[in-house]
Each structure stands twice: as structure tokens, then as C-alpha cells.
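Predict the 3D structure for this chain.
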Amino acid sequence: MPLHQTPSFEYILPDLTTIPLPTHHHHHHPSPAPSLTTLPPELHALIIPHLPYPDALALKHTCHLFYHAVDTSIRQKVSWLVDRHARGLPCPQKKCIMKTDALFCRGEVKALMERRRRHQECGTRGCEVVVGRECDVSERKARRMGMPRGRFECMGILIDPRLVYLAVLMVCFSTLVNVFVGMRIYQMRRGERWWRTSS
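Done. Predicted structure below.
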């Protein structure tokens, strides 16, 4: 090799894309699913007063937290009975002892709460447990009776189909009564004319 020439060196750089990078294995523990107990107490205070007495009583006996947070006082009991009466649902016919939940939930009240739990009070006008919605029981009864499900709206007013059928029956009955009375009046007048002509 001539002296005036400098040696050349070739550097072969590695392909960095093929070198595996170190990986850090982080164990991510899934966060627990949110539930009613994980909500802030402020939301509990907003939700609980809207529960009817049977639902509030069931929630009260789920855990120690709700046992002291849920109110099932006499006011809740009376409010539930008044709401049932306003919606035309059966109410206890005997005197109720409202001093405690154990004394109140006996006899007729226990039977009513059991019927409500099984949706046996739901009919063609919709679900009586969650007002404004449909349930399987109400839909089956509506199909079996050949009536429209739930309530329908007419000019912004919710109308119960049973009221429509009742009104149609009343109109038919009054029409039959008017026809019968008209025939009797006609027969009486005709008999009076015959008596006058014969005398």
C-alpha cells in the first residue's frame, strides 16, 4: 500500500429497528365497577327520598350504611298508601300499625308488597312498580285482552284505554235506554189515540 494513502475504515451500524426495546410490565389492576355504595353521600341524599316505601325498605336492609341512611318513617308509609289509593290500587282495609316496619309489614300490607314484587298488580295501563314503563306482565295482559299496551296520548293528554272502552259501553247503554223509552212512549200515545177513537 502506498505511503501517501491513508487507510479507510468502514463502520457498519446496527439496525436499531430490529433491536427489541426493554419492556416494563405494569400490572394494571382493574378498578371495581361503580355501585350505589360507591356514590357520594350527596347523591344518596338525592336518590333515597324518591323511593317508595317497599323499595326504601328493601334498600335499608341491604347493608349497614343504608340501614342508617334510609328513612322508613310513618311519613313514608302514609305517602305510599296515599299514592296507591290515588292510582286505584288495592289498599289495606284494616287498621295498620305504623310504629315499626315489622308491625306495619304484616297481614294485608305484606300481601300487597308481595303482589307488587311479583308485578301481579300490573295491568293493561302499564307497569305499576315503575310508573310510566312497560313490563312483561302488563304486555302479556294487554295482548291477552286485545287492548293496546299502556296509555296513548291524544292532544297532549295521556288516556287509559280502559276509560275509552268504558265510555263506549256507556254510550251504547244510553242509546239502548233511549230507544226503549222512545218505543214505550210511542206505544202509550198510540194506545191513548185508540182509546179516544173507540170512546
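The longest helix spans residues 161-198.
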